[in-house]
């Protein structure tokens, strides 16, 4: 079965899902035939980083967050926002004022009531410069929110507040059609101020130092463990619709290990790629869909370092044959990407034109032009140069980094690439610490806003690890998400000009490919969802059937 899904922000990692009905999941022979165990197991390539929703960045952790917490809205199976903790939502005619009515039966996992104050607290924590999270930009459309996170105004002047235990009000600077979708992202989930302060520095560091309000609660995670369990949250307001009782999770980096376990009927959902796609594509239970995750090279452009040289960056950006990578190395449906934003993700609300088609291509493979820039770079940096390439030690990370190493050393004579493979969480931390020269990374939209991608290189963005600065880029991106937020044509033009600065003029990033997702799935698992934005998958409505 082939289907096209748009998946949604965040640093991407490949995932493998595993088992329902393995030996430990078998029901007793004495049970009635109609009784089915609602226990499954899944596997991820990296452990959880933190469960403080204001601080999560990697896609693996974010997938867990979406199961454990719920915001004012949540996504349905079509990735459309529907009421979550808020049972009623009123929007003003000008689209700038929102009033949310909190459900009376919305509770924390300890049975205490969730209030509007829990949202006010967590949102202030997200944008306050003292505690600011990397995704605070999601609230930039709120009155004074950007000024607060830039330290220009007090957090008490922000345009959201709890008017009572049951009512939460939000005022926007400009109408934002996608605002309710943004609220479904786990980064904007509530937090109990009393519990956070009581827990102190331990908050979010293990499964006992968190209160949950989503479909599941977490158990058996000590902060560094490679295994944990998601168990049904009996205090969840809509728990009657949650069928799964338990999801066991383990870290599993090697794809072939997952395939072997699938073939031995110990796993029932496993992600595959490369040659495995060709081998298993005719097997019953194989599914494939194009997602919107992008993989790219990012430079640490610190002045005075080799990667700070624009001619070197331009040479590298044009020296990679992306078609050969996707067709021969990945061979899993991934496609070359010559732009910051993937195809088939964002449409102009007026013209329905896809942004990628509108903006065109940047950094298309051109060996002759690459070598011209390389000649100029050598005049400035010397005839021989070494760069360290930071990449995740996953199957995909190994294959892609080795291909890039061969391409660059072959096409740019005198350039040596030393590949540094690290666990995914270590890669993310090294990037945050700006401790890298060249890194292989990825991103997938966390919301239905184009700004999710352009924010990566915003002047004060927490994700601007590579020290990119350009006043024209900043001005264009700011106007696109504020002044032109409700004008699709002007917004697209702003972003196109910004993308041209980023990728052509500055070569601050090298887009490589837009990935595809391929799975082998036991048909007993039904209603697993693959959302437009956010996590890899969502199992709130999943169940095991005969």
UniProtKB/TrEMBL annotation:
It is found in: Cell membrane. Pfam families: SBP_bac_5 (PF00496). Its main location: membrane. Residues 80-463 form the Solute-binding protein family domain. It is a lipid-anchor. PROSITE patterns: PROKAR_LIPOPROTEIN, SBP_BACTERIAL_5. Residues 1-19 form the signal peptide. It comes from the Bacteria. Belongs to the bacterial solute-binding protein 5 family. This is Peptide ABC transporter substrate-binding protein. The lineage of its organism: Bacteria, Bacillati, Bacillota, Bacilli, Lactobacillales.
């Amino acid at each position: 079965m082939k289907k096209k899904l748009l998946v949604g922000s965040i640093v991407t990692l490949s995932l493998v899902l595993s088992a329902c009905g393995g030996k430990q999941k078998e029901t007793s022979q004495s049970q009635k035939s109609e009784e089915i165990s609602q226990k499954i197991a899944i596997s991820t390539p990296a452990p959880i980083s933190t469960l403080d929703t204001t601080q999560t960045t990697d896609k693996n952790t974010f997938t867990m967050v979406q199961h454990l917490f719920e915001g004012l809205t949540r996504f349905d199976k079509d990735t459309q926002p529907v009421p979550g903790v808020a049972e009623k939502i009123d929007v003003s005619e000008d689209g700038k004022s929102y009033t949310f009515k909190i459900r009376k039966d919305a509770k924390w996992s300890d049975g205490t009531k969730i209030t509007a104050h829990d949202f006010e607290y967590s949102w202030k924590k997200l944008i306050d410069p003292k505690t600011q999270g990397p995704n605070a930009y999601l609230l930039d459309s709120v009155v004074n929110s950007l000024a607060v996170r830039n330290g220009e105004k007090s957090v008490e002047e922000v345009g959201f507040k709890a008017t009572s235990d049951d009512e939460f009000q939000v005022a926007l600077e400009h109408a934002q059609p996608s605002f309710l979708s943004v609220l479904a992202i786990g980064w904007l989930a509530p937090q109990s101020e009393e519990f956070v302060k009581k827990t102190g520095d331990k908050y979010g560091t293990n499964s006992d130092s968190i209160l949950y309000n989503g479909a599941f609660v977490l158990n058996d995670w000590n902060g560094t463990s490679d295994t944990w369990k998601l168990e049904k949250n009996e205090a969840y307001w809509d728990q009657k619709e949650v069928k799964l009782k338990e999801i066991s999770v383990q870290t599993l980096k090697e794809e072939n290990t997952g395939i072997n376990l699938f073939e031995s009927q110990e796993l029932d959902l496993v992600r595959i790629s490369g040659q495995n796609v060709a081998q298993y594509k005719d097997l019953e239970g194989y599914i494939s869909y194009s997602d919107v995750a992008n993989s790219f090279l990012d430079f640490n452009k610190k002045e005075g370092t080799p990667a700070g040289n624009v001619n070197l960056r331009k040479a590298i950006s044009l020296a990679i044959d992306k078609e050969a990578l996707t067709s021969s190395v990945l061979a899993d449906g991934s496609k070359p990407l010559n732009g910051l934003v993937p195809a088939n993700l964002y449409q102009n609300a007026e013209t329905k034109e896809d942004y990628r088609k509108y903006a065109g291509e940047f950094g298309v493979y051109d060996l002759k032009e690459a070598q011209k820039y390389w000649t100029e770079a050598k005049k400035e940096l010397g005839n021989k140069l070494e760069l360290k390439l930071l990449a995740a030690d996953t199957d995909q990370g190994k294959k892609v980094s080795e291909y890039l190493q061969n391409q660059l050393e072959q096409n740019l004579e005198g350039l040596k690439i030393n590949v540094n493979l690290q666990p995914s969480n270590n890669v993310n931390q090294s990037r945050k610490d700006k401790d890298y020269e060249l890194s292989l990374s990825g991103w997938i939209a966390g919301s239905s806003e184009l700004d999710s991608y352009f924010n990566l290189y915003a002047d004060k963005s927490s994700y601007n690890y590579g020290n990119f600065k350009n006043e024209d880029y900043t001005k264009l991106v700011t106007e696109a998400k504020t002044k032109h937020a409700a004008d699709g044509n002007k917004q697209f033009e702003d972003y196109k000009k910004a993308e041209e600065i980023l990728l052509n003029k500055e070569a601050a990033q090298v887009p490589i490919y837009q990935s595809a997702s391929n799975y082998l799935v036991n048909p007993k698992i039904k209603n697993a969802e693959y959302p437009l934005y956010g996590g890899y998958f969502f199992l709130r409505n999943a169940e095991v059937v005969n």
